[in-house]
Design brief:
The chain has 3 helices and 3 strands, in the order H-H-E-E-H-E. With 110 residues, it is an alpha+beta fold. It has a 3-stranded mixed β-sheet, covered by helices on one side. Helix 2 crosses helix 3. The chain binds ligand A1D88. One of its GO terms (biological process) is fatty acid beta-oxidation.
Length: 110
């Protein structure tokens, strides 16, 4: 999963939460995200599901979405109960690509 995170666009100033930081504590407490939905699935709750949830913009990758996605990936990665992470997009499209007004650089191919 570290490999997947490394494919995420490189956003200047992107919050990269560290162990025990406030962002991860909020995530662990089940806080709602604005641009993604997270759930633990499976009988053993061992599958971390992340769904992109910015339907009005066809899940275009804005800074907020990328920040939340990075936080969710890290939190699931650090959850010993989670053995797999599934990332899904929208019904119509997975994602509309980089947000149209975005001025941030992208590292690697997505
Ligand atoms: C290194 C990486 C680079 C990249 O990521 S390059 C790719 C960048 N992305 C794009 O060029 C795709 C741009 N979007 C489109 O071409 C079209 O969309 C689609 C073909 C994906 C779908 O077309 P349709 O079904 O007609 O939907 P709609 O009315 O165009 O879009 C619905 C709403 O979604 C917003 N939206 C879609 N993609 C983006 C985007 N990339 N950035 C910001 N907004 C986006 C629109 O504006 C609109 O919103 P509103 O209803 O308010 O006009």
């Amino acid at each position: 999963m570290a490999a997947l995170r490394s494919l995420l666009p490189c956003v200047p100033g992107l919050l990269r939460p560290r162990h025990g930081c406030a962002a991860l504590r909020t995530f662990a407490a089940g806080a709602k995200f604005e641009y993604i939905i997270t759930e633990k699935k499976g009988k053993a709750h061992n599958v971390g599901l992340i769904q992109l949830n910015r339907p009005k913009a066809l899940n275009a990758l804005c800074k907020g979405l990328i920040t939340e996605l990075s936080q969710a990936l890290q939190a699931f990665e650090e959850d010993r109960a989670v053995g797999a992470i599934v990332l899904t997009g929208g019904e119509k499209v997975f994602a509309g690509g980089q947000h149209g007004s975005g001025s941030w650089a992208v590292r690697g191919a997505v």
